[in-house]
TrEMBL record:
SUPFAM superfamilies: DPP6 N-terminal domain-like. Residues 1-15 form the signal peptide. This is S9 family peptidase. It comes from Pristionchus entomophagus. InterPro entries: 6-blade_b-propeller_TolB-like. The keyword Metal-binding does not apply. Keywords: Signal.
Amino acid sequence: MLQLLLGCLLLKTTAESLIPREKLVSDSSNADKFALSPDGKTVGFVSPDANKTRNVFTWRISERQKKQVTFEKIDVIEFMWTGVPDIILFSQDNNGDENTMIFKKNISENAPPLERMVISNTPRVQATLVANNQKDGHVLIGINDETPEYHNVYKFDLLTNELSLVFNNTRFSVESIRTDNDMLIRLAYDQQD
């Protein structure tokens, strides 16, 4: 997967300019965590840092070197690019408690390196990404803030940090909620026994 991604990124260059996997990440088990930025100029990935904590790194194709962009003490589970340049989302739980939190992080050059914003950090509540088309200034987040089994769906504005309820869910698993390319909920299904 990693080789395919890098090969696609560098199709217009010569074979000797491919970035060796060892330079990107020494732990190849993280190869499924790689993602290309919406502008196609940066690869992002989750990898252990110097303290062996999994954090987010980026690799700008033009600069040919990786850069750590999150500095968490608890492992990052995954990260996502967004439709707002230099804004990523990443998720983590509290040492395996499965109460996943989603954070917003500005990774631009002038952003404070340790600053990030948690979207939901209520104890015993899980947040999950429902939709992210990587072109709009918002994403849809599922939060099981009323009932543990069901995630309400909220629109999170990446510029204003406003969280607004889109779908009050009392019946469907978050995995069964489907959106279209504009992140409008179009379908929710329930399995019958």
